[in-house]
UniProtKB/TrEMBL annotation:
This is ADP-ribose pyrophosphatase. Gene3D superfamilies: Nucleoside Triphosphate Pyrophosphohydrolase. Residues 40-171 form the Nudix hydrolase domain. Keywords: Hydrolase. It comes from Streptohalobacillus salinus. It holds the Pfam family NUDIX. It comes from the Bacteria. Coiled coil: none annotated. InterPro entries: NUDIX_hydrolase-like_dom_sf, NUDIX_hydrolase_CS, NUDIX_hydrolase_dom. One of its GO terms (molecular function) is hydrolase activity. Transmembrane segments: none annotated. Its cofactor is Mg(2+).
Length: 180
């Protein structure tokens, strides 16, 4: 049992969408008082660190509507219901980059915003890329540009806020810890 566990008294669904579900929960606090928590439920996602033989990193650039700007990110995507994370990672790598691999290593997983959301991202690594003979189609509402970048270019993109999301900054840090 957790020392500061909050017990759910009542959960009220507010919204059920394609990507998230939202609820408002009444909770009992550890001191016996009650409070309200607004919660976002998410299927989870994957992200892939993909390294080319010449030590460049596959990145995708896409428009992010909540931010009203384009970002450069590691290839990533959300898990479908019941989908295994490694299969999702392979699918997203193929769709977004035009490469596949026979070697995906799970590096870690992490929660993105645990204060209100349960989204868990599984971060994979591969340095054994194989170009697909025929590029796979992106999702119908997905538009991305593929970039290959050096570590110096990744660092500069972080400074310039072209890379401005945690999963990608975390991936870059992990690459540095691996000696790239």
């Amino acid at each position: 049992m957790c020392k500061y566990e909050e017990k759910t008294i009542k959960s009220t669904p507010i919204f059920k969408g394609r990507v998230i579900d939202v609820s408002v929960d009444d909770v009992q606090l550890p001191n016996g008082e009650t409070s309200i928590r607004e919660l976002v439920k998410h299927q989870g996602a994957v992200a892939i660190i993909a390294v080319t033989p010449d030590q460049r990193f596959l990145m995708v650039e896409q428009f992010r509507k909540p931010l009203e700007k384009q970002l450069i990110e590691v290839p990533a995507g959300k898990l479908e219901s019941g989908e295994a994370p490694d299969l999702c990672a392979l699918r997203e790598l193929e769709e977004e980059t035009g490469f596949t691999t026979n070697h995906l290593e799970l590096v870690t997983s992490f929660y993105t915003t645990p204060g209100f959301c349960d989204e868990l991202i599984y971060l994979y690594f591969t340095d054994q890329l194989v170009p697909l003979e025929e590029k796979k189609a992106l999702d119908e509402d997905e538009f991305v540009d593929l970039h290959t970048m050096t570590m110096e270019e990744l660092d500069q993109a972080i400074v310039d806020r072209r890379i401005h999301d945690l999963k990608t900054m975390y991936a870059v840090q992990l690459l540095k810890l691996r000696g790239y």
